[in-house]
Amino acid sequence: MNTDRLTGFGALLLGIVLYSLAGDSEAYLFPRFIAVAIGLLGAVIAAATFSRVLLPTASTSGAGRAWLKSLPVLAVFIAYRWAMETFGFYSSAFAAFLIIVWLYAPEPLSYRTASKRIAISAVFTVAIFALFSLLLRVQTPRGMLL
Amino acid sequence: MELLQYFPDVLTPWHLAILSLGMIGGLLLGATPGLSPTLAVALLIPFTFNMEAAAALILLGAVYTGTVAGGAISAILLGIPGAPANIATTLDGHALAKRGRAAEALHYCFLSSFVGGLIGILVLIFFTPPLAEVALRFGPSHLFWVAILGVTVIGSLGSKSVVKGLLAGAIGLWLATIGYDPVLGEERFVYSDHLTGGINIIAALVGLFAIPQVLGMLEGAGSTGPTATYQLESHGLAASIAATLSRWQALAIGSVVGIFIGLIPGAGGQVAGLVAYDQARKLSPNRDSFGKGEPEGIIAAESANNAMVGPSLVPLLTLGVPGSPTAAVLLGGLLIHGLFPGPNLFTLHAEVTWTFIGSLLLGQVLMLLFGLYISRHSRLVMQVPAHYMAAAVTVLAVFGAYSVQNSLSDVIVMLTLGTGMYFAAKVGVSPAPVVLGIILGPIAEMNYTQGKLIAEVGEGMARYFLTGPLNITLIGLCLASVGYSLLAELRSARPRRAQA
């Protein structure tokens, strides 16, 4: 299916869902108005895909399945948030930095590249510790470690 | 003139050292995604407790000026605005940097920031009393129309079409309604404990810009060779100065819009850059190249958000009403040192006040010098391998989102919005309209509701919102903005129709 058409119908559906969730309380006056706007704009986008006049058609090829490459880092995001609470900000920052670099580095793994990655991750962590905790004295999440 | 009388106080070695340190620190903090000017100034207030009042205000003023300008560094080099005020800079600044012209983009940024900032401070020096009266005239109906003017800009901000831009903006407006209703206090769309406090603007800004950048970098990482992300071209400073001055219309638009928006209490500097960018685009013969690395876009946006700094202090210093969130934090800095805003500030505490204003003036020169120095080293950032940059941005984004309210909920919101934006970008939606929606939503809703309450006990809705010279001027600007956007969309649709 054309991605614009999908976007249009998706937005139309979102507008309908938001409007029905809003109820008739006075506090929802503004959100109801916005829900109508979202639905209408979605309808315009969907309609335009049939006439090909109002919108440039979004490419359905090109990027392809490149987004699949981002799945590991999405898992890192989820783990990072949990690790921050459990181990503390700086130790989890070190781990997250190292894992992302490890997962996406183009160079093949060797003793030298591994040492380099660990060293850069450590230097980065020390630098942010010096800036945020020592210089600015900003509060960061605390856990079992630093 | 009093400024000249007290200006030598700025030039004492201690004050010059404080000013330079504050400016360098501000530029670097501003370049850190998530560390907004407001947060940076707030973080530094405890450091000023034991300083004399003039030195404390010089430090806070320098950090304020530095962070506003510094936010453009990450906007240009990484595509992640350091603060909401730099959103518009991202659109053309990062596009130019991706073409290998990062140093040139930073030159435009700091030169136009200098011009805009200087004009803004001169306005603060020479026109404070009459402008304070203008600032006082802005009521809820006018602020509502200012927010609507911002909404009309939404459609043209980076998305592939006006309709998609408006849809993204509407989604941003909806996101802003999550949490407690500002007037009735009723919960809205709170389906998780993490959403009780609503969507924090800085967390949203960081997530919507930084996370798609991280994911985008990692999409290409690992397969394209080991090092440089972009090819780099060198660019002479003299050529950049000539190019900036030759685009005087963009400078003028940016400065005027920045002064006007800065004066309005509560409008916020973030709106200034976006409105100036939009107006510059509409009036430029190169309008089709906006969003693709057009220098005029950078110049208009940066001159506006720096021109806003001086005027935003007018209502603060004369009336005690802050013109921007950062000015509100500065108000705290004033009060801590026993300085109460109002006419007495310029008489009883003239020495401190004029030394502070003088330091802002000198600060513009230092900002230009330090900024241009940083520009020379921009290639270092652009040559960091994508996987290292992505890892660093991820950590800084998480810190930026957390540090605003010391809340892990903000981190979750940031990561969720960012991941959603990454997929939305695949269908041609830009993050800028979403962020603008989140910024403008509360301003529009709050002022509409307040205006409605005032109108109901007084002259009626239509008369309150639609009459008076300020209302009519703002409505006229809104209509002109919408009319132009529709005209431009139809004009660009004509060739597509012919092709079809």
In words, what does this structure look like?
The complex is a heterodimer of chains A (146) and B (500). In chain A, 69% of the residues lie in helices and 0% in strands. Chain A is an all-alpha fold. With 500 residues, chain B is mainly alpha-helical. Chain B has one domain. Helices cover 74% and strands 1% of the residues of chain B. Chain B has a two-stranded antiparallel sheet. About 1% of the residues of chain B have low confidence. At the A-B interface, helix 1, helix 2, helix 3, helix 4 and helix 5 of A face helix 9, helix 10, helix 19, helix 20 and helix 21 of B.
Keywords:
heterodimer, A: 146 residues, mainly alpha, 5 helices, 69% helix, 0% strand, elongated, B: 500 residues, two-stranded antiparallel ribbon, 23 helices, 2 strands, 1% strand
Quick recap:
Chain A has helices at residues 3-22, 29-51, 71-87, 89-104, 111-135. Chain A is mainly α and 146 residues long.
Continuous helix count of chain A: 5
Form type of chain A: elongated
Helix share, percent of chain A: 55-70%
How far apart, in Å, are the first and last alpha carbons of chain B?
67 Å
What are the secondary-structure elements of chain A, in order, as H or E? HHHHH
Which consecutive residue ranges of chain A, at least 5 long each, have pLDDT under 50? 57-62
Radius of gyration of chain B: 22 Å
β-strand percent of chain B reads: under 5%
- Number of alpha- plus pi-helical segments of chain B: 23
How many distinct folded domains of chain B?
1
Shape of chain B: globular
